[in-house]
Amino acid sequence: MKLVINYARPQSGAKDSEIFGMDVAINNFLRAFLRHGRQETFFFLPDSEESIAALRNLAQEAGADFARCAWLMPQAPKETLCDVDLLFRPDPNLGDHPWKRLQLPPPGFALGSMVHTLSGERVAEALANYLIAPTQAGDAIICPSTAIRDAVASLWQIQTEYYNARFAGNSTCPVDLPVIPLGIDTNRFLNITTPEKRASQRAALGIAEDEVVILYVGRLSYATKAHPLPLFQAAEIAAQRCKQKLRLVLYGFFKPDMMEPDFRDAASDYCRSLKVDFVLNNDPRFPDGLWAAGDIFTSLIDNIQESFGLTPIEAMAGGLPAVISDFDGYRDGVRHGQDGFLVPTCAPPPGTNLDVAAHYFNQRNYGDYLIRNNQSVAVDAQMAAAAFVLLAEDRPRRLIMGQSGRERAMTRYDWAAVIRAYEDLWEQQAEKRKSAQRHVPQDWPAVHPGFPDPSTMFAGFPSSHLSLQDGFELSGDEDDLHRVRRHRMNTFGIDMLLDPARMVALLKCIKSASDGGAAVFAAQMDAGDSSRVLRTLAWLMKMGLIRKK
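Request: output the structure for the sequence above.
Response:
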């Protein structure tokens, strides 16, 4: 199977501490693909020289041979994509690829993509294009969790209801929604959670041996990640009830910076019985993070921008039991009572927040939209506190759950297993696309709704049109043709005409033909493209080399 990946270098990450989660996921996926992929040659469709340079760096980081990478030109689908079985883009924006596929002989390549988060307008617009573009059976969007799969299906249902009502139709989207989780390098977490690193990290923070550390890792934002109040409340309740001394450590970065005093003030107000540490993820003392210092991982997520949640999986790989929200894709990873505990969440029913959507549409403030939604998502702090106490007071249970989570991470979420799942899916897509139907009208005069055939759209502009039944006679010769071609103004777009040798042969056919019919010329030329012949005839007329009889 010939697979091509369309890659655009992520634009975030000017500062390592601020690279967007989606871009981290894309980079990690590509490193893993270059390390574990079974292709002899890794074909890419890059969008720029900068993207090629970024891929070179990713290959080096993955320990892959960059010589196995090859580049295809996105501007020439007929020349570069005819023998491709599947084109994959590691984000949800397929761009023009479904339309470019129409330029190829059937069946063309299958299309694949990956969705990360669904809460923004740009993602919704990108996914709406799957309903409008000529997607077909064999195409698929890989979802990292069942929650995201269901959210995409819900979005399509909402959009389809509008299209069907607007155009009195009965359309559905043919694109599949398989679920494959994001992956991690589990060996890395084995190496960064050694007893030596645990001792070093805890010593740097002054954590006593008998203190139980509840560790949060991630972006510190009550708008775009998680409101911290349920965590502060749960930690305080647990500290008051627990026989063990607890400490809460939050490791990450504030986004935006203005939220830092809000977090610190809330922690000071609500957490009176335990110490709370905020550690920035660019702290030079902790190049490997703080995974080794923790005893219990927590993330009481409440935000619709989350899709899967890598940090719980990373915590499992690090051997930490997890106390996390029973929310979105989080619930796919941690098995309640086995690898940790899922904390119940509650939100208003469907149909409640239409005014929140209207406010977002009118104001176009993404962060404001997220926080207006998550202010009404409740996380059960009492249940979280009970889980903290249970794990803090029962070290053997912590270790058993941590080991269970580590084994699950290694077998299900290691990149080697995830890439195999991707490649198996791609093989299925490539096979399914062979019998796929193209959802465009027969002989449709466009390559895209915004790019129609100009000869059709502007058919009323000229006073007449050429036909293969027209007759022609010479008004110039081969020398005149060479003279015309010397002027640059005459040769723009000449690649859409017959090549020079065939032009000369065409002039000879016109000179010798008894009826001068264009159909005879096309047959004698064996061009196999009547449109190209007609364009050439019109150009020869424009240049004064032939005229209609």
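The first strand starts at residue 3 and ends at 7.
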